[in-house]
C-alpha cells in the first residue's frame, strides 16, 4: 500500500483494516502501523492509539504511557503544521504480538460498522485548518495527563475514547464529532488535573 493510498482512509473500518493488514507475522511494530496508515495521515495516527486504549490492550502495564507518547508527538506536529509525522526510532521499534493486534481489531470492528453509519462529513471546517490544529492542542492536554492516570482504573480508557473521537473527526472531516469530542475532553482534562494536583 502506497503512502498516497493510505492517506485516503476516510472511515473507521478503513483505518482498522489498514492496521490489521500491517506487516509483521509474529509482531507488529509502531513503524508497521505508521506505514499502513501513512505518515501524512494525522487523523488515523491519533485514532489508532485512541482505539487501542479502549481495547483489551489497555490492561497491559505501561501501555497507556506508550500510547500517550505517540499521541503527544502526533498532536504536537499537527499543531505546528508539519505535513508528515516524525517519530524517534526507539518508539517506532516498539511492537505488540500479532495475535494481540488481531484480537483488538476483531474487538473493535463490530462497533466500527455502526459508527461509520453515523459519522460523515459535516461542518467540515471544524475539523480542518486552524480548527484541526486546535484538535491537536486538546490531544496534547489529554496525552499529558495520561501517564499518571494509568494508576486510576479505566481513566485512560476514557482518554482513549476522547482521542478516538478527535482522530475520527479528522478522518471523516466531521465537525459535529469534533465538537462532541471537545465536550468530552473538558471533563477528562478536569478529572486528570484534579487527580494530579
Question: In terms of topology, how is this protein built?
Answer:
Blueprint: H1 3-6, H2 12-20, E1 27-29, H3 30-37, H4 42-53, H5 63-79, H6 89-92, E2 95-97, H7 98-118, H8 129-149, H9 155-172, H10 175-196
Antiparallel strand pairs: 1-2
Helix pairs in contact: 2-7, 4-5, 4-9, 5-8, 8-9, 8-10, 9-10
How would you characterize the overall build of this protein?
The protein is mainly alpha-helical and 197 residues long. The chain has one domain (3-196). The protein is 69% helix and 3% strand. It is built from 10 helices and 2 strands, in the order H-H-E-H-H-H-H-E-H-H-H-H. The chain has helices spanning 3-6, 12-20, 30-37, 42-53, 63-79, 89-92, 98-118, 129-149, 155-172, 175-196, and strands at 27-29, 95-97. Strands 1-2 form a two-stranded antiparallel sheet. The longest helix is centred in the last third of the chain and has 22 residues, at 175-196. The radius of gyration is 15 Å and the shape is globular. The chain starts with a helix and ends with a helix.
Amino acid at each position: 500500500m502506497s503512502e498516497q493510498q493510505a492517506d485516503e482512509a476516510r472511515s473507521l473500518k478503513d483505518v482498522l483494516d489498514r492496521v490489521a493488514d500491517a506487516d509483521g507475522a509474529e509482531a507488529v511494530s509502531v513503524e508497521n502501523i505508521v506505514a499502513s496508515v501513512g505518515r501524512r495521515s494525522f487523523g488515523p495516527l491519533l485514532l489508532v492509539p485512541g482505539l487501542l486504549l479502549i481495547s483489551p490492550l489497555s490492561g497491559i502495564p505501561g501501555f497507556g504511557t506508550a500510547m500517550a507518547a505517540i499521541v503527544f508527538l502526533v498532536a504536537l506536529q499537527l499543531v505546528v503544521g508539519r505535513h508528515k509525522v516524525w517519530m524517534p526510532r526507539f518508539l517506532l521499534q516498539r511492537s505488540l504480538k500479532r495475535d494481540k493486534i488481531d484480537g483488538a481489531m476483531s474487538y473493535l470492528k463490530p462497533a466500527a460498522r455502526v459508527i461509520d453509519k453515523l459519522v460523515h462529513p459535516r461542518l467540515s471546517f471544524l475539523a480542518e485548518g486552524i480548527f484541526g490544529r486546535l484538535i491537536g492542542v486538546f490531544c496534547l492536554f489529554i496525552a499529558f495527563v495520561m501517564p499518571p492516570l494509568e494508576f486510576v482504573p479505566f481513566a485512560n480508557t476514557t482518554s482513549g475514547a476522547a482521542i478516538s473521537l478527535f482522530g475520527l473527526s479528522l478522518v471523516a472531516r466531521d465537525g459535529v464529532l469534533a465538537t462532541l469530542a471537545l465536550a468530552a475532553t473538558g471533563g477528562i482534562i478536569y478529572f486528570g488535573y484534579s487527580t494530579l494536583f
